[in-house]
Amino acid sequence: MMDIQQLDKKYVLPTYARADVEFVSGKNARLTDANGKEYIDFTSGIAVVSVGHGNERLTNALCEQTKKLIHMSNLYYTAPQALAAKKIVEASGYDMKCFFGNSGAEANEGAIKIARKYGEKDGVPKRYKIITLDHSFHGRTITTVKATGQESMHNYFGPFPDGFVYAKDIDEVESLLDDHTVAVMIELVQGEGGVQPQDKQKVQELVKLLQSKDILVIVDEVQTGVYRTGKFLASNLYEIEPDIISLAKGVGGGVPVGVVMTSKKDIFSPGDHGSTFGGNFLSTTAVCEVLDILNEYDASGALSDGIAYFDAALEKFYNNHTNLFTAKVGLGMMCGLRVKDSETLSAIIKNAQENGVMVLKAGRNTLRFLPPLTITKEEIDEGFKALESAVSKL
């Protein structure tokens, strides 16, 4: 029988530069590969496995739901979908409604459609332009890849939908506004762009300006949402009230889910938007259980304790290796270290895997950390011990 790597190379399109490892099981922040080797996971599947690998509550909830119904269409009522929407809205603290899709890109597509429809008003010029930031990342569909402020991602796939304008930073947004601007779309911490938090005061001033001009504020919380930065939403941490928010990744704990939520609760009519799989019984059961777990984890103080412990360990690691790192960045459990050059970054990631800890790259030169939110102190200690061994070999 062919091994998995041979099967992958023969039958799967090569859209990923895969590391030479195949994981077969996991428990919280611990992974085991096909050879029985164990690793500490500081990636959580790129901020997805929010409640850890093999979480018993989540797996039990999913197993019980599969015995009843996995899927029926959105032409009928789905109890866990309504309950999941209620839990998301209540946790956010905003007066909004939700739409469920299957990914962050779909959530951002929904956000863009909401904004574009909002720009259609009788008696005034159509407003359709959406301003995004350089180094942003909003997805890989044709529209969301064009919304992404990274020119290298626009190669080969045109022509694109028009109407996107790129600001080099928050400060430049105001100068780009015109009569056709309907929305500004930002990540409060740019993930793929290098774990770069926005300045809180500048964000608050921008939101105030935009809302005074009836320009929608879209916050892409696909990576920052669901307690990743310490609050349920980074928008809560920044003390702003967006008009539209997108969620995905950690909200399903590993089950594919995307959510767009908006205060424009009557913007869509039946037929304006939809998804065959979005919000089905299985995915929204996952959302309900993940939110119950994390709400309890947050209320108990365990989340803030874990964030503080991870931050202290990262700070110590950074201070021990200022010859390798130039800055410590991020918020909550979405954090990173700027590495002096890209070659050193690649070597650290390779050595880390060999030493039993998984870490990520972000941007050109950032070592990114996105551990499960439920990671234990023992797992944190073990992971940083492995990282110390990894960098000692440079």
TrEMBL record:
GO MF terms held by the record: identical protein binding; pyridoxal phosphate binding; transaminase activity
InterPro entries: AcOrn/SuccOrn_fam (IPR004636), Aminotrans_3 (IPR005814), Aminotrans_3_PPA_site (IPR049704), Class-III_PLP-dep_AT (IPR050103), PyrdxlP-dep_Trfase (IPR015424), PyrdxlP-dep_Trfase_major (IPR015421), PyrdxlP-dep_Trfase_small (IPR015422)
Pfam families: Aminotran_3 (PF00202)
Annotated GO biological process: L-arginine biosynthetic process
Source organism, top-level taxon: Bacteria
Pathway annotation: Amino-acid biosynthesis
Annotated keywords: Amino-acid biosynthesis, Aminotransferase, Pyridoxal phosphate, Transferase
Known cofactor(s): pyridoxal 5'-phosphate
Similarity comment: Belongs to the class-III pyridoxal-phosphate-dependent aminotransferase family.
Name of this chain's protein: Aspartate aminotransferase family protein
Top-level taxonomy: Bacteria, Pseudomonadati, Campylobacterota, Epsilonproteobacteria, Campylobacterales
